[in-house]
Design goal:
The complex is a heterodimer of chains A (325) and B (254). Chain A folds into two domains: 8-226, 3-Layer(aba) Sandwich (Rossmann fold), CATH 3.40.50; 232-301, Alpha-Beta Plaits, CATH 3.30.70.100. Helices cover 38% and strands 26% of the residues of chain A. Chain A is α/β, with parallel strands linked by helices and 325 residues long. Chain B is an all-alpha fold and 254 residues long. Chain B has helices at residues 3-14, 18-40, 56-85, 88-93, 99-124, 126-129, 137-164, 168-184, 197-203, 207-220, 225-250; strands spanning 46-49, 52-54. In chain B, strands 1-2 form a two-stranded antiparallel sheet. Classes of the chains: A alpha/beta (325), B mainly alpha (254).
């Protein structure tokens, strides 16, 4: 085995569950002290990838080295140097916040003095003072999540996997957690981070792989993704009436329109395009055909979120086309 | 610290339900202090084997000690269930451990509970048992071996059951039911040789019978050729059940 210069080096990694391709020929690498993001909708294959890279699930095919160790033959070596915050809850049920961190530190063989110091620091940084003596079973979902993330920092590691770590956290705590992670990255920690929340990926990640239906469809820096896909414009409009059946489908099926989203709270339709001058007359024409009145319409700068939705829906359309055609 | 010590410590600290453990200890004491004495009036002393004659209260007190072995075994299944339900099973397998270390740590924790519990019940029952036991080195060896093999068997049994069942509720119900079947068809309450043939046969298929017979033989110095045979069978049964548990464990999906 040649020692890879990358912290994670993955080639054609694939996982199949029966007929279902959960992860398909995924190839990427991450450098030291990098935050590498996996961004994708539910069911895209993010968790399955993490389960493979943390040696929990054997890959169907493909190769990977983690921290220079071969995934297939050196699992134990890998596990000694990684941390994992799973997407699912994980807690010891007979313990409270403090004792569960204590016992977790102990099973990782962290010396007692160091354990104590870290627990105090983490309780402070994650704002867990008020519930440090509360039984894990009595914690709210958000508190439990905070404990789960904090607990993982008890032990030393070179690489941390975070599977949607901020789900269920309120915005202030979320920012707190992300900032703590950023500090650790400055100290040399490498992070593999999954999320379906775009701002989070943008805030934290050095590079983002957009994953959909088990395949990586883009890998780039948040800035570049924005430049490449954000040059498009967004067209937003409102209708006076409720839209009748068929209207949304009719607009989405247009050649120049890749996707149409609807925001219920503002009753706004939004689509991205590189040719707004073609799309706007088209929208008017279809609205007219359905006897609808457009009350407002305007052009805006596309966001990274537009780019993300675009990439995913384009990819879904292509896949569908390939399967039916 | 040694990896097994760390994992066993965690199992005992995090996964023991202290309330049910308390009741598991109280339960056998009712047999020792109430049932045994109550039945002494209608059950005359009888021969245990090797010419040793004992009262029913002594007979039952010894049986009650081995009863804690099944209780402890059930705990092995509960530990695994809690870890799977709470996402700690995966968490530990992604840590610096192997699957074998994890499952062994559950078995060791179960042995600690089983042997610790039996000794505790034994100490509490000492006022009843104390005057009549005739300890020898060979007897003590049988005594300890019975408890270890019994805990191994029932621990492995509960682990296999725990893997096979879909919910922790089902596990609780099935293991409680199995517990009663093992208990009432064993020689905890009656000597198999004095039971009707059908019950004797069932009883002689039951590992708890061997645990109890071997334990009593060791305690009262009443070993017979049958007991040596039972020891051999129990070793095989514990080993087979252990293999079944390991195979079942390897099939757990993550
Ligand atoms: N154990 C499993 N058996 C069968 N299908 C699975 C299993 N685990 C995941 N999948 C499927 O694989 C796909 C990817 O799942 P997952 O990796 O959990 O996605 P994500 O984490 O991106 O939401 C999904 O379609 C999911 O239903
Ligand atoms: Mg997931």
């Amino acid at each position: 085995m040649t020692t890879s210069e990358y912290v994670i080096d993955v080639k054609d990694l694939t996982k199949r569950f029966g007929e279902k391709m959960a992860v398909e020929n995924v190839t990427f690498n991450t450098k030291r002290s990098e935050v590498f993001g996996f961004l994708g909708p539910n069911g895209a294959g993010k968790t399955t990838t993490i389960k493979m890279l943390t040696t929990l699930l054997p890959p169907t095919s493909g190769t990977a080295s983690v921290l220079g160790f071969d995934l297939k033959t050196q699992g134990r070596k890998i596990r000694e140097r990684i941390g994992v915050v799973q997407q699912q809850d994980s807690f010891d049920q007979g313990l409270n916040v403090e004792t569960s961190m204590e016992v977790y530190g102990l099973i990782w063989d962290v010396p007692k003095k160091l354990r104590r110091d870290r627990i105090d620091e983490l309780i402070e940084r994650f704002g867990m003072h008020d519930f440090r003596k509360l039984a894990t079973l009595d914690l709210s979902a958000g508190q439990r999540r905070r404990l789960q993330v904090a607990r993982e920092f008890i032990h030393d590691m070179d690489l941390l996997f975070l599977d949607e770590p901020t789900v269920g956290l309120d915005p202030i705590v979320r920012r707190n957690v992300l900032d703590y992670i950023k500090d650790k990255v400055k100290d040399g920690l490498t992070i593999f981070f999954t999320t379906h929340i775009l701002e989070e990926a943008e805030y934290l990640c050095d590079r983002i792989a957009v994953i959909n239906q088990g395949r990586i469809i883009q890998i780039d820096t948040p800035g570049n993704l924005k430049r490449r896909f954000g040059s498009a414009k967004a067209v937003e409009f409102n209708l006076q009436e409720e839209s009748p059946p068929g209207f949304v489908e009719n607009i989405s099926s247009q050649e120049s329109i890749s996707s149409l989203t609807y925001d219920k709270s503002t009753k706004t339709y939004r689509t991205t395009t590189s040719r707004p001058e073609l799309v706007i007359p088209e929208i008017y024409r279809i609205a007219d055909r359905f006897r609808l009145t457009i009350s407002s319409i305007f052009i805006a700068q596309a966001t990274l979120e537009d780019a993300f939705i675009n990439m995913v829906t384009e990819d879904d359309k292509e896949t569908k086309g390939r399967e039916t055609g | 610290m040694n990896v097994y010590l760390r994992l066993v410590y965690r199992n005992l600290r995090a996964n023991l339900d202290k309330i049910s453990l308390f009741f598991e200890l109280i339960f056998p004491l009712f047999f020792v202090f109430v049932q045994g004495y109550a039945l002494n009036g209608i059950v005359p002393p009888f021969e245990l084997g090797n010419g040793v004659v004992i009262s029913y209260s002594l007979f039952l007190a010894a049986g009650a000690v081995t009863l804690t072995v099944i209780n402890a075994g059930t705990n092995a299944g509960t530990q695994l269930w809690y870890d799977r339900k709470n996402g700690m099973f995966e968490q530990i397998l992604m840590g610096p451990f192997t699957r074998a270390q994890y499952i062994l740590s559950i078995i060791i924790a179960t042995l600690v509970i089983g042997i610790g519990g039996s000794l505790l019940v034994f100490l509490l029952a000492f006022p009843v048992l104390g005057a009549s036991i005739s300890p020898t080195i060979q007897g003590a060896a049988l005594f300890v071996l019975a408890l270890i093999l019994g805990t191994m068997f029932f621990g492995a049994f509960a682990i296999a059951l725990s893997v096979g069942l879909k919910s922790s509720e089902t596990f609780q119900i099935v293991s409680t039911f199995a517990f009663f079947v093992f208990l009432f068809t064993s020689t905890v309450f009656f000597p198999a040789t004095k039971a009707p043939p059908a019950i004797e046969t069932v009883s002689l298929l039951n590992p708890l019978t061997y645990v109890t017979d071997i334990f009593r033989a060791g305690l009262f110095n009443a070993a017979t050729p049958l007991v040596s045979l039972e020891l051999g069978v129990l070793v095989v049964e514990a080993a087979v059940m252990f293999v079944i548990a390991v195979l079942a464990f390897r099939r757990i999906r993550v």
